[in-house]
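User: Long-chain acyl-CoA synthetase. Structure?
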Amino acid sequence: MYSDYHFIDRIRQQAQARANHTALRYHRNESWHNICWKDFQYRIDAMSRALLAYNIGIQDKIAIFAHNMPNWTIADIGALQIRAVTVPIYATNTAAQAMFILNNADVKILFVGDQEQYDQIMPVIARCPALEKIVAMKESIDLQGHPQACHWQDFIAAGSAAQQSELESRLAHKSLADLFTLIYTSGTTGEPKGVMLDYANLAHQLKAHDQTIQVSETDVSLSFLPFSHIFERAWVAYILHRGATNCYIEDTNQVRAALSEIRPTLMCAVPRFYEKIYAAITDKVQKAPFHRRAIFNWALYAAKKYRDKNSLLNRLQYRLADKAVLAKLRNLLGGRIRMMPCGGAKLEPAVGAFFRQIGINIKSGYGMTETTATVSCWQDNDFQPDSIGAVMPGAEVKIGEKDEILVRGGMVMRGYYKNPQETARAFTADGFLKTGDAGKFDAQGNLYITDRIKELMKTSNGKYIAPQAIEGKIGKDKFVEQIAVIADARKYVSALIVPCFESLEEYARQLNIKYHDRMDLIKHSEIIRLFEKRLEELQKELPSFEQVKKFTLLPQAFSTKAEEITPTLKLRRKVILQRYKAQIEAMYS
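Assistant: Predicted structure:
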């Protein structure tokens, strides 16, 4: 069924067919550099031979602890070619988190991307008995004389023609049943679990996406979400499968510049990315003179009419609107964006509808690490912004007990590594994966998330609260960077809010508010009043029992190092409740 979709076959076929075309681009020393497909394959093969020289066996594990860069992909595919298994580690993980993964997965070789990751891992190396080698992916990393460490080029030099026959043998005997990765889930409620994904899972998704979206060799994708997350990793696999060009950004602060420099046609992003752009645009419009606001609103209305009905009059009005307003908004993203997959959390419907109106084809979807990413996504012909889209080809979705969304199909994981109890708990008796999300279908087959079963809160008044829905409403505001809703066993809803200090400090300058530091700023009566007004406006459509009645502003963000959020930016609510116990109790005293 998927024999034509083995990922390694697709890479090697593209390298042969598109030898001198650009496969990868990366930014270094103030300019962009290209790697052609022939060179890409050469580097992958060199990595495979080096891994064989270090006796990496079939289904042995290598790990990558790094930000996005071409060497991440080269190490990954180099390992996959010899039927080894790649284990990503989030670049921001702590030493303890990385050590757990290295030991649980029995990792033999670890690749590190920067000095930060190298220094992070050094104190725990002695407690990782399976680990044989640490490879620094950049020559600038100071190895500090560690006997197990070497630089990338020295590691590659260990491989030679002596390993070529073994490489060819591994390629000849590869199987769709081989694991290609272990991805450790974030662990919001406990220890991370290693999700086992095989080539058949990935092949299913390559084929399903071929049937759903249009990506060609001429496309250019900008990659800045972490490869340690299945969303970006699977997307880049798809980009390479299609023979398109993937562009790498290590530092997310470079995204704005990269959009104008390489002008991508495709880019994955999380809802927060769109929410920030939406907030900045709407804020600018609100401050504009009346006639400019009128033109902006007319342009959005003209776009909506054109999409609802393609008449001659609507086409003419749309062309005027596009020239006057819409094209300028698209230029904020480089001007060539054709499609933007969105995942990681549910996108606020108003934000999704806005981007669709200005001509940015956002493909918001639903999926999990356990489903090799996408289960459903928005369609072009039946766009429902409240939904999480229609089910992907080959996926079987039904609604189970407590309205839980259940998934079965070729994309669903094999199970959790070394964890048969959690694997059994994750599936129903008839083999459906339990997602932990409650949902429903409409008459047209669009899927909707109604609640997060595992995170549903119950107030002391007996009302059920879905915190993520409230956090989504408030979190789209330009003054809000992070928010954690408190409601469980409480008489009303409250929230811990981390302000977006860039926006807040600009507001303070405009009002000539004097303050010494951030703590002083968030205690200022004008700032408290600002947030009270913003919350009142943002929550006016929510039932009274769901509205945040009290809030506390925090001077610093929730962080992965403090284990308050996961590397995928999900809140670790138990940690937050404990750490901010005094602030929370003060809101209910």
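The two ends are 62 Å apart (CA to CA). The mean pLDDT is 93.
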